[in-house]
Known about the structure:
Blueprint: E1 15-16, E2 20-29, E3 32-39, E4 45-51, E5 57-59, E6 66-68
Amino acid sequence: MNYQDLPTVLGKDTILHGRYIIQDVLGQGGSGVTYRALDYQTGESVAIKEYFPDSLAVRQASKNDLLIDSSK
């Protein structure tokens, strides 16, 4: 399965906090997404867990904005 085609994941090469570059999706479940990323400062490969409860959150089409349903 190509996770990059899913609307709930960050795109490849997305930069987080000016330090981490998303490289791939390791897994996705009901409470979040786990990414493989490169730490730009150290050069090390790291895993990043994004809390993304599918019953409460949606990602905007830009794939960078996360909306939380506050009515739940």
